[in-house]
Amino acid sequence: MRWADELLVPVPDLRMQLALAAADERLSSFQTDLGTRRASIWSSPEDADEVVSKVAAAFDDSLTSWLDQLPYPIASALWTAESAQSVGEQQRAYLRAWEAIVTFHATVLLSASRTDPGSSSETEAAIRQTLHEQHLGIEKASFGTWVVIVEKTSKYLRTALQDGDSDDVARVRRAFAELGRAGIERLISKDVVNKFKEVNIKRNRWSGHTGYTSEQELRTQVDSLDSDLRELRGLLGNVWSQLVLVRPGSAKRRLDGLIQTAEVALGTRTPFAAREFAVGEQMFEDELYLVRDGSQSPLRLGHFVQLRAAPSSAHFTTYFYNRTEGRSVRMISYQYGPESELQDDVKSLLLDFGGLVDAVADDHHGKT
């Protein structure tokens, strides 16, 4: 049995071991509670419906329940669609919500790829070339523009994750704030890219100058977009619960490391709840980040997605980059809010355009 002296058994680090132990303990307590509730209905039959309804809520797979797990920019746009008064309004709101989803997804992947500037420059050159070939551009960002960005960044990240060595895998994980490999694979999967392409085809067919559309046809379109959302939910799983969107606040250094308070921008409700996160690098205030507790390098998002607070309240409206107009950029909102769009100086997004524009476009954007 001397061979056992050299046997290496891989184990997670201490933080992960403690997290797994805590999760297992909680699940065990849930199982015990479920058993108690199940037994109680036999002694109190009149309470059976109430007991079932409480337990059923934990297994609610409706789209409405999904909203609480989604980043606020997506959840708020989807809630606008869910709460629309007419089928026509709902169809338009669902199409806009899909715009929000693909823009947010593209911004996340582009931000992650830019943590490796060398490889990102090649990826962005490929994006720029494809946009040119398809007569698209970041200067006027359409649904198709964001799909190209998702497709190209996904391909680069998949290659690094699947064909790279251990250092490449570690680099990709750091780019996503140490998200697990399975979660990253969900975000960059070909199936997600294909789903965005399918929805883009529907959007092009159903919006714009399409003539009269009956209420029944609109209902069919809404049902189709709803089905697409359910498929996307299956593809992404709970990744947005693992990689949390936050607005950073104050930070303090303790003996065990840096602790930063941040508002968690999940679901549809504001003001956001605050949580403390252990981080390796301090997050800048007035920025959006994706973070996990214990992240060494939280992922700072580009400014193609922004949260703007009303001056007199803690309520937020999400704005997405739409296009460049002269020396201004147009930001639009897909949720109910005080304004549906706003204008910013183009200089505020110059760094975000990066390699997505060529030298001629740089001059147009006001670079000197």
Protein model, in words:
The chain is α+β, with helices and mostly antiparallel strands. The chain has two domains: 63-204 and 217-242, no CATH class; 244-364, no CATH class. The protein is built from 14 helices and nine strands. The protein has helices at residues 14-43, 48-56, 63-67, 72-82, 87-113, 117-133, 143-163, 166-175, 181-187, 190-206, 215-236, 239-242, 350-353, 359-364; strands at 244-254, 257-264, 273-279, 289-291, 299-300, 305-309, 316-325, 328-332, 341-345. A five-stranded antiparallel beta sheet has the order 3-2-1-4-5. A four-stranded antiparallel beta sheet has the order 6-7-8-9. A hairpin with a 2-residue loop joins strand 7 and strand 8 (328-332). The chain starts with 13 loop residues before the first helix and ends with a helix. The model is unreliable at 360-368 (pLDDT under 50).
Quick description:
The protein is α+β, with helices and mostly antiparallel strands. It has helices at 14-43, 48-56, 63-67, 72-82, 87-113, 117-133, 143-163, 166-175, 181-187, 190-206, 215-236, 239-242, 350-353, 359-364; strands at 244-254, 257-264, 273-279, 289-291, 299-300, 305-309, 316-325, 328-332, 341-345. It has 14 helices and 9 strands.
